[in-house]
């Protein structure tokens, strides 16, 4: 599954917005970023928040990039990562003053929802990229009910819910749960697109997904969620996506 398998375009606005199901988006994202990097001729790439499970840790697959670095706020998470990869500890929600106009590609997976200052994060991404570079991010979106609950309830209660709905995850060691804020993580509404444009980016692609698997242990709710997903795939509502992958370009 690669760059052309994500979603069909259903709306255009200086770029493209498409919709698909969660499994297609989740399973295809790593290959999507990889194929996009190859098409763009990427030589310098940074994976943001890659922590214990960096995608670019696969040197054989990502060998075309001369410079690969994983940036994360947690030295402990970076220490868990496997592969021969450069790592750097940095708070991406604080202004970064070095390496501006340096990278061809910055990307993240399941990071953006954990950022307390989304504007500073995306401004950092804009500054670090060379003109024409890409900033690509995969994240869960409000206003899907489990994420609204995760945002509102105390972290201790959220951990208990995760342990119930995803048994064994918290014991795996490299699949920890972190506090979530869900700032700038919605579906492709006009307001959301304007936010990214306000930093200076062009919104080149926005792939929204419907559905989630958080109810799989509660069969009646899971059946309702699957029915809702089928309906929304036929009648998309931007505000009701559950996950997204966005491609932002710094103007050349």
Q: What does this protein look like?
A:
It contains 7 helices and 9 strands; from the N terminus they run ββαββαββαβαααβαβ. It has helices at residues 22-40, 75-80, 118-128, 145-152, 155-165, 190-199, 219-234, and strands spanning 8-12, 16-21, 44-48, 67-72, 86-89, 103-109, 129-140, 202-210, 243-249. With 252 residues, the chain is an alpha/beta fold. Strand 1 (8-12) and strand 2 (16-21) form a beta hairpin. The protein is globular, with a radius of gyration of 18 Å. It has a single domain, classed as Vaccinia Virus protein VP39 (Rossmann fold), CATH 3.40.50.150. It has a 9-stranded mixed β-sheet, sandwiched between helices.
Short recap of the structure:
Residues 48-134 form the Methyltransferase type domain. The chain has 252 residues and is of the alpha/beta class. The chain is built from 7 helices and 9 strands.
Task: Specify the number of helices.
Answer: 7
Kindly give the count of domains.
1
Under CATH at level 1, the class stands as: Alpha Beta
Q: Quote the distance from N terminus to C terminus.
A: 29 Å
Helix content: 25-40%
Strand order of the largest sheet: 1-2-8-9-7-6-3-4-5
**What is the oligomeric state here?**
single chain
Q: How do the helices and strands follow one another from N- to C-terminus?
A: EEHEEHEEHEHHHEHE
| CATH topology descriptor | Rossmann fold
Largest sheet: 9 strands, mixed
Structural class, by secondary structure, is alpha/beta
Q: Please compute the radius of gyration using only Cα atoms.
A: 18 Å
Name the average pLDDT. 87
Low-confidence spans? 7-14, 169-175
Number of strands: 9
């Amino acid at each position: 599954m690669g760059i052309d398998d994500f979603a069909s375009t259903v709306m255009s606005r200086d770029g493209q917005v498409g919709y698909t199901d969660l499994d297609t988006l989740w399973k295809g994202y790593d290959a999507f970023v990889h194929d996009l990097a190859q098409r763009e001729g990427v030589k310098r790439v940074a994976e943001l928040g890659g922590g214990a499970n960096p995608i670019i840790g696969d040197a054989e697959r990502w060998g075309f990039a001369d410079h690969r670095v994983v940036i994360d706020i947690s030295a402990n998470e970076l220490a868990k990562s496997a592969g021969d990869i450069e790592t750097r500890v940095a708070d991406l929600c604080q202004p970064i003053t070095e390496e501006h106009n340096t990278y061809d590609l910055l990307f993240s997976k399941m990071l953006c929802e954990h950022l307390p200052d989304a504007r500073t994060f995306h401004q950092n991404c804009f500054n670090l990229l060379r003109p024409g570079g890409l900033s690509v991010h995969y994240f869960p979106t409000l206003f899907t009910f489990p994420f609204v609950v995760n945002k509102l309830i105390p972290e201790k209660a959220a951990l208990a819910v995760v342990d119930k709905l995803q048994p064994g995850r918290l014991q795996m060691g490299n699949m920890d749960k972190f506090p979530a804020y869900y700032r700038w993580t919605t579906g492709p509404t006009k307001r959301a697109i304007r936010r990214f444009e306000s930093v200076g980016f062009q919104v080149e692609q926005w792939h929204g997904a419907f559905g989630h698997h958080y109810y799989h242990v509660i069969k009646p709710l899971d059946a309702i969620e699957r029915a809702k997903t089928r309906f929304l795939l036929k009648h998309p509502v931007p505000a009701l996506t559950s996950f997204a992958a966005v491609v932002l370009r710094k103007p050349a």
